[in-house]
Structures are given as C-alpha cells and as structure tokens.
Amino acid sequence: MNGTSQMDGTSYVSQCAVPPGSSFVYNFKADQAGTYWYHSHEKSQYPDGLRGMMVISDPEDPYKAQYDQEIVISISDWYHGQMPDLLLKFDQPDNRMRDITPDSNLINDTVGAKFEVVPERTYLVRLANIGGFVGQYFWIQNHAMTLLAEDEAKEDATANFPIVSRMDTGSFSSHVPWPKNLDAVAWLTYDTEADFPDPDVLEDKESAYALDDMALEPLDKQPLLEPVDRTLAIDIDMKTQEDGIIHWLFNTISYRTPTLPSLFAALATGPEATDPKSFERSTQTFVMEHGQIIEVTMNNKHMWKHPLHLHGHNFQVTKRTKGLVETTPEGRAPMRRDTINVNGHGWVAFRFRADNPGVWLLHCHMEWHAHSGLKATFVEAPLQLQQRLRLSNVSATLDPSKACDPGRVQVISSIEESVGVFDGTDGLTRHAYLHPTPLLIAVIALICSLGLICAYLWRRSAGTQEGIYSRVPMVDIEENDKPNAAEPP
Ligand SMILES: [Cu+2]
After folding, report:
1. Which residues surround ligand 1, an ion (CB under 5 A)?
2. ipTM reported for the complex, 2 dp
3. Which residue of 44, 64, 336, 467 is 20 to 30 Å from 160, comparing CA positions?
4. Which tens digits make up the pLDDT trace of 253-283?
C-alpha cells in the first residue's frame, strides 16, 4: 500500500464505510509478493465470512525451482452465532472482558478438507490464519515442513495423513468454557480410497515444538534501522469506561470510531495536520515526520497474548520477551512482519522508517479486542501526504457528521502514476452495483408475463381445435368424496 493510503480499506481511518448498494474500487499496485488475506474493516464483519485469501505471485520467486505445486490453506476459528448478536452479548457491563470463545475450527472454511498430493512431489504451502480471534498451531502429521524450502519427508504413498490446526489456548480466559474441540482436521491425501485416520493424540504441549519466528531472517538481510529518531512506548491495558463496560486501551485511551475519517482530517487541516490535536482524541493519534526511524515498544500489562498489527509497514522486530527471557535477532538481520504476537506480561519492540505517507492503524488483530478499543492511529508524514492526495471537497469536512454522506467527499490522487493506468473509477461509486432484489423482481415479472401470454394463446387455440388435455376425463372430486350410501354407517 505504499503511496495509496486511501486504498487501505480501514473504515473511518482511510475512507468512509461502503454503504449498502454502493461499491468501492480498490486500486493499488500489487508490488509486494506474498501470501495475504483481505477482510472487511468495518463493524466486526469479517469473522462472519467477509474475508478471503490473496496471493501475489513473484515472477522472480527465488524458491521456484524447489517446489512443484502450491497448496493454499486458510485456518480460522468459527462461531455458530453471528457477530452482531455476539457483540451485544460481549458489550455487557457484567462481561468482565471475557472474550467469546469460538464454536469450531476450520481449515479452508470447512471440516475434513482433503488436499490430494502425489508422492515424491514437493509442495509449497501458503498458510494464513484468517480467523477473528484465536492463534493456531499448525502441523502435518508424519511430514517435516521447512519454511520456504523443500519438504524431505518420504512417506507411505498409499496412506493419508492428518493436517491439524489447533487453537492456542493461551488466547482464552480461564473464566469461560473452552471449545470442546480445539482442532481443525484435514488430510494430506495420497489415496482417496484409503482410510482417513484421526490425528494422533498430542498433549497440549506442542507449543514447545513451535517455530520461534524471532529466529527468521529476511532474504534481503535488511540491516537494523538506526539510529532511532523517536520512541513510542505503548501500554496494553484495560479499564472500565464511562459506558460501564471494561474496554481495552492503548495507554489511557480506548479507541472510538471518529465521525470524520482520520485521512480526511489529515488532508483537510493543512499545516495543522502535524498536530495530534487536529484529530479526535479517541483515535489515539501519533503523528510522525517523514523519514524518521520510529521504534515502538509495546508493553502487555495482562496475561493474554495479543497479535499486534500495523498497517502500511513491514516492521523490524528487535526484541520480544517471554517470561524473563528476552529474545533479539542476535547478529542476524531482524525479521520483518506486519503482525507480531506479544506474550502475556511481556513486551515487544519494533522499528520502521516513516517513508510511507498515510494514515495507518495499529491494532490488536483479535476482533474482540479491536472492537473494544485496542487501536491507535499513526499519521505518517502528513505534509508529504497532502502533496500526493487531496479531497474533492474540503469544506464538506467542516461538518464531520455529514462528511460521509454519499458522494460528498472523494480522496483524489495527485500522482496517477503511483497506481499506473486504470480505465475505471476508483474509490466510492454510487449505484455501480446492481442490487439483486430489483433484478430478481424483473426476472420474475418477465416469467409471469410470458406465462400469461402463453395461457391466453393456449385458451384461444383450445377454442378452435381439440387440445391434448381436453381428452383427459374430468372427475368431480366433491361427488367422489361423498360417503357411499350403500355402506353401513
Ligand atoms: Cu488483543
């Protein structure tokens, strides 16, 4: 999303929400190869299904020669209720921040998926957790997996092997019932006629074998960014707010959706956009200067893990603690991520260069926590941003309550080459989407009209010649249904 903050898709951060019956064209340059997923960033909609995986292929994939085929796998927790109802239950004063635990666990949005494979071939597995809440441990039974490298297992080609994704119980409060079944199971399928065995029973200690992502090193070996120009210390905390409900907070602020999208505020306020006070306080806005190296330290004051996600950057993770153990890259180039798990009562530190002018969210990717306020806004290089983007109607932002009325304000890119040639209209488009209801009514009306015309023509033809149905003997049902007078009562 470098250079196209207005296409980031975060409602009331980079755009207005897309109203029913409208469409929004996301126009951006897919120049960052990898395995991603997309999802709604409005009203906790994505755990109900408004999400999917997105693969950006690399024409110069350095591992291309090392695998034969790709398998794309999503894993996700799943709720039998829908989010609007679950949020009502969640937002109760007597709910002491007990996250609602999922009912089920899915691989590729189903139970018992089968991935057919051929012996001796090597597969690249692209894996993403697209769930709303729980972290997962993933393994394929009897198969060694190497991250972005060859799978060297030689297994029985007449058997099938369980693929397991297990919910990380470190996400759950001990005060709520845990899901009955933590595992999602699919099968690596060599032979569709053979058995599909249950996975081996493992004690819940598999996390000891899990990959420590701090040990990863990026291929480009980007050196540690230094010196740090600015340090942000952010505590993860929770506290009862004025609505009587316990909310999550970054430092002392629980994020509330602003009336005016923060990007609109950054573009409408001129030089004052460098002042955090130009943004609604509840958006917890940090303003960064162009090119600064920022180090963010996030300190978890509670016992649960949080997957912290920053939009607009792949940051270098420089430290993470677990208990009393502190892990650093130790002489390697630091791994780069856009999401990092912070452990219970632990902390993480990450760095990035503020070279992507835009308005970007930092938030926990557990939807209960994000919904409950665990979000902050990074306004990055607003003066440079104002040179790239402008508003179609600045004065319309003076009444924030109306700024998101349909058609009122558009964000316009000043540098078209940032996204190349595009022959459509990007951004919010009114009535571009044909709603299915009027379409359905039109089709039904057409069918009914044709039916009436046919019936009329048939009746006319029946009057002039003997139709086939005229030979069917007519039965007077009422007469036949009368009791037979000869039978005794
Ligand atoms: Cu969280």
Report:
1. 306, 364, 366, 369
2. 0.90
3. 64
4. 999 999 999 999 999 999 999 999 999 999 9
The reported pLDDT for the residue numbered 148 is 53
Ligand 1 center to 307 CA (angstroms): 6
Structural domains in the chain, CATH included, are 63-215 (2.60.40.420), 230-429 (2.60.40.420)
How many Å lie between the centroid of ligand 1 and the Cα of residue 239?
14
161 Cα distance to chain centroid: 29
Alpha carbon distances (Å) from 478 to 471, 475, 483: 21, 9, 10
Q: How far is the C-alpha of 149 from the C-alpha of 424, rounded, in Å?
A: 40
pLDDT digits (tens, 9 = 90+) for 61-101: 988 898 999 999 999 999 999 999 999 999 999 888 789 99
- The per-residue b/e assignment along 286-306, b for 16 or more CB within 10 angstroms, e otherwise, is bbbeeeebbbbebbbeeebbb
Expressed in angstroms and rounded, the spacing between residue 121 Cα and the centre of ligand 1 is 39
Q: What's the CA-to-centroid distance between 363 and ligand 1, angstroms?
A: 8
Written as six digits, the tokens of 203 are: 């004690």
**How much is the pLDDT for 477?**
36
**14: Cα within 13 Å, side-chain hemisphere:** 28
Q: Distance between CA atoms of 24 and 11, rounded to whole angstroms? A: 12
How far apart are the C-alpha atoms of 74 and 116, rounded to whole Å?
16
In the predicted model, what is the mean pLDDT of residues 222-226?
A: 96
